[in-house]
Amino acid sequence: MTGEFDLIDAIVATLGAATEGPGVVLGPGDDAALLRLDDGDQLVSSVDTLVEAVHFPTGAPPERIARRALGVAVSDLAAMGARPLGVLIAAVLPAATDARWVRAFARGLAEPARAWGAPVVGGNLARGPLSISVTVLGALPEGAALTRGWARPGDQIWVSGPLGGAAAALARGAVFERDRYAEPGCERYFEPQPRLELGVRLRGIATAAIDVSDGLAADLTHLARASGVTLALDASSVPLYPGSTLEQALHGGDDYELAFTAPPGIDVRIAAGPRMPLSPQQGAARSLDVSSDRSADRSVDGSANRSADMRADRGTETRTGQGSTQGAGVATEPQAAAGDDRSPQLVCIGRALARGSEGADLLLDGAPLAARGFDHFG
Fold this sequence. Notes:
Layout: H1 4-15, E1 24-26, E2 34-35, E3 41-51, H2 62-80, E4 83-93, H3 99-116, E5 120-127, E6 131-141, E7 156-159, H4 165-172, H5 186-190, H6 196-201, E8 208-211, H7 216-227, E9 229-233, H8 246-251, E10 258-262, E11 267-268, E12 298-299, E13 347-354, E14 362-364, E15 367-368
Parallel strand pairs: 4-5, 9-14
Antiparallel strand pairs: 1-2, 3-6, 4-6, 7-10, 7-13, 8-10, 9-13, 11-12, 14-15
């Protein structure tokens, strides 16, 4: 059995430059890490725990476990509009775990940690059933946080990309078999893509935001309750990952896109980053044009507030089955999901309403929608 300190040394050595960052004063190797906050910034913190056979399949490769655990946790910073400062990893490992497994796990952390600017600055190891806890620390200017509690009646509801891909891969059993990891949707499950850049750009634009981790319906329910509004969704406007159903998009989870609200007719001025591509939905449920041009005034058409006007021209995406409101429709697209575009594709999917006497959190095509989850591992 490899000793704890040997495993820690192997992790730190494998991480290399992924332990360094502009806010890191002192990284792994001491009793605690030291991070630097800029004047006027607030600290943002969140923690997620992933347990084998609950949050990832038994026997999954350590690189995949690491990438999934880090992406899930960092996505919470994106939802707040924060930039990462550092990450802490606490791993409970079975007694038989060797240095080779640990080095592979560290490799799975290193690449996304560098790509996302989320240095791994410390952690802990213990023996027991396999689980991974990731604490993320971020920063943002005081008063700039995106929270769940400020959506107002009339706001439009947006989502940053197609939903249901991870749930579809789970339903097919593809995430349980290594020789099927190349199938569509597995990359959504094992490689969440936190929308960090988008979250920062939405400061001062979004009135409320949340990352879609437990399914669109569950997460928008949290947002609706925190804001005291009813969120009315248009089923035909919800963007589906190719091969997924509306049911999976609404209730499957593991998408890690951002869902947010913003006032209609707002001039969207995004100062940094590349222009985001338009989604296939280019009818009345218009994609948000996010531009790097500071001088450009980009308006979101307020007509998307009207449910009848939000029926999207699906372009190459179609639905088949017994009706989308029952979740039977399946999205198909000529460009296969193997060519998965991880760039944000912002789509308007509904609007916020004043909460009526019935107190519904969510409506789907005018009918109350209750959140519920999938039991993937039951």
